[in-house]
Amino acid sequence: MHRVVIVGAGFGGLSAAKALVGKPVDVTIVDQRNFHTFQPMLYEVATAGLESGDVAYPIRVIFGKAPNVRFRFAAVRGVDWERRHVLLEGSDPLAFDSVIVASGATARYFGIPGASEFSFPLYTLTDARRLRDHVLRRLEDADTNPARAAEGPLNFVVVGGGPTGVEVAGALAELLDVAVRHDGFRFDRTTGRIILVDGLDRLLTPFKPSAASYAADTLRGRGIELRLGRMVKLVTDTCVELDDGSQIPTETVVWAGGVTVEKTVASHLGAAVGPNGRLLVEADLSLVGHHDGFAIGDAAAVPWGAGSNEPGKICPQLAQVAIQSGAHAAAQILSRLDGRSTEPFRYHDKGIMATIGRRAAITQFPNGALVRGTLGWLAWLGLHLVYLIGFRNRIVVLVNWSWRYLSWGSGPRVIVGDTIQLADEPVPPMAGRPVPSEPGDSP
Ligand SMILES: Cc1cc2nc3c(=O)[nH]c(=O)nc-3n(C[C@H](O)[C@H](O)[C@H](O)COP(=O)(O)OP(=O)(O)OC[C@H]3O[C@@H](n4cnc5c(N)ncnc54)[C@H](O)[C@@H]3O)c2cc1C
Questions:
Q1: Cβ of 12 below 6 Å from ligand 1
Q2: Rounded distance, CA 293 to CA 240, Å?
Q3: Domains and CATH numbers, the chain
Q4: Residue 222, ligand 1, Cβ within 6 A
Q5: Using CA positions, which residue lies closest to atom 19 of ligand 1?
Q6: Helix 163-182 and helix 125-144, axial crossing angle in degrees, nearest 10
Q7: How far, in Å, from the CA of 124 to the mean position of ligand 1?
Q8: 162: left (phi over 0), alpha (psi -120 to 50) or beta
Q9: Which residues make Cβ contacts (< 8 Å) with residue 11, sequence separation at least 6?
Q10: What atom of ligand 1 comes closest to residue 319's alpha carbon?
Q11: Cβ(102) to ligand 1 under 6 A?
């Protein structure tokens, strides 16, 4: 049986594996986590809107009944192309005939001093849970020590005015409102500031300018301060410094400033990479220089293909691109097995979406038409439910969202990590600050 190893069980890896279920190939999906993460809703976990388990789904459960697909819980550290082995951390290598690299990307800090140490990225479930604990602790701190208000425990700086930054800023404003209105916090809501910083002079660059203006007006209307056209120069554990010399006192910097493939496993494959570390692929998505390898999703410079009027255009790092490129790579492997030639990839643009908070979102269709406001928000909800993995998750998320909509009182506003120092325990260093991400952290 032809052995296919898929590295990563994100949108791309799952899509490739699903396309190979029941086919005459032996598939192994390898992931350093035992669950798939629905990244578009991580911000809901980070702002205490959803539980961790609502946006994560065990990979074994997805393929439990597929006889030709198995899961391997391991971190990949490279590929031996000569021997056709995927190299795993701490266990025997996996032999392959074809390999699909779907290992995603990670946060990009642009070398800004202090950014990787003191800010909170939002790329994994661990990131989201850590941020939620941290934000909820700041609320408790502000309640306990109102005199500290000037030091900024309730100043939340969001770096990046793309969809993730806009979503996080809107949801943080809602969290502060709810905390004061429903949870009995006694701090003055006006001492809570959310400041969104972006180096460009507009939000949501992939969207039309009118959509960006709508997002800016909506955020300002919800009390969020926008510092557009300003670059972050320095992040410390107590402030953010901008390029105009101004300093914002804060203990919480959410990093939504972009993603990179550099320093991920893709850079240890001995394969050709392009800008931002993305793996270079041929038109059929096979790796440049490695005929038996394919790269898909965020990890790859996926060509837009024939549908684009810009020659050489590369797809954005979006879930739809990962899903479509995953299915395409799987189909090419099957074509080769049948003795047919491979086909070039062609991206089918289904539009882009961003939500700004309750009853405010933007959907931009490929023809440029915009739907915004409540209708845009309902479209966002519907689409994300459709793509959420697992029937149980869909039901739970739908119930949670509906309940939150009717009653702000709900929401998992629980601090899970240990926060109160017990009398006989030493004070941990950097208590309450980010700790390195742990592979395999389960929901
Ligand atoms: C906060 C956030 C919000 C987003 N919102 C949207 C949105 O609204 N709409 C949209 O279209 N897109 C959105 N995106 C982008 C979208 O989630 C990505 O484009 C998509 O997840 C890419 O899929 P992928 O399969 O390429 O990678 P990923 O989904 O990142 O999956 C990569 C997988 O590889 C595994 N992995 C990585 N390295 C290793 C290793 N060394 N060994 C083993 N396993 C490994 C990881 O554990 C992970 O499971 C968002 C992204 C983020 C971070």
A1: yes
A2: 43
A3: 2-32+74-105+261-337 (3.50.50.60), 115-259+351-406 (3.50.50.100)
A4: no
A5: 318
A6: 40
A7: 8
A8: beta
A9: 297, 319, 322, 323, 326
A10: 11
A11: yes
| 320 Cβ below 6 A of ligand 1 | yes
**Backbone torsion region of residue 270, taken as left when φ is above 0, otherwise alpha when ψ lies between -120 and 50, otherwise beta:** left
Question: In this predicted structure, what is the pLDDT of residue 408?
Answer: 61
Query: Position of tokens 């479930």?
Result: 125
Please, which residues bridge with residue 360 across strands?
357
More confident: 395 or 281: 281
Give nearest CA residue, ligand 1 atom 46: 8
pLDDT in tens, 138-150: 999 988 888 887 7
Identify the pLDDT of residue 89: 95
pLDDT in tens, 65-119: 999 999 999 999 999 999 999 999 999 999 999 999 999 999 999 999 999 999 9
